[in-house]
Amino acid sequence: MGAEAGAIVEEEYLFKKPKNNDREDDNERDEYFLIDPQDFAEYSQLIRNGSAAERHHKEFYLRMIQHFTDSVYAGKPPDAWVMSALADAFENVLHGGRWEDEFPLPWTKVSLPHSRAEWSALGIYCDIENAMKANPEQNVTDAINNAANDHAVSYEKARAAYYVNKKRFSKISPRT
User: Fold this and answer.
1) 97 and 158 belong to one structural domain
2) Are 33 and 74 contained in the same domain?
3) Are residues 26 and 79 in the same domain?
4) Is the entire prediction scored with pTM above 0.70?
């Protein structure tokens, strides 16, 4: 038989996450099951009272989105705090945030705050600054040339990386 009238039937939500390979084909996904508790109210209580584990926090947006869709499909309004959190995340996307960062799911990677080129430029800047501090008599052009050789980039690229970051950091902490 079926469930009795008025009884709440708990569902174990099944999601599909991309398999760990270079292709992200929607047809190629591993299964992902929510960890316990399955009930959104119980889960929310764990988050509110601070007893949630890190694995619970990783599922926060997944569960919030699931609660939203369940509520909408059931013809009920989602909780106000869920609507507010979703609105904040959508607002961040509209202002340039990446979907993966604003709606983190357990299987998505959070993007780095800087691109690979910016990290490379920062490394070049740090090497030049460290060389100048280690040998204050050294000419800055020599330090830039050494960093360019160490990082296998042109002198011009190393010079640009140095001065872009020098300008950026001078705004944060001007030297006296």
Assistant:
1) no
2) yes
3) yes
4) no
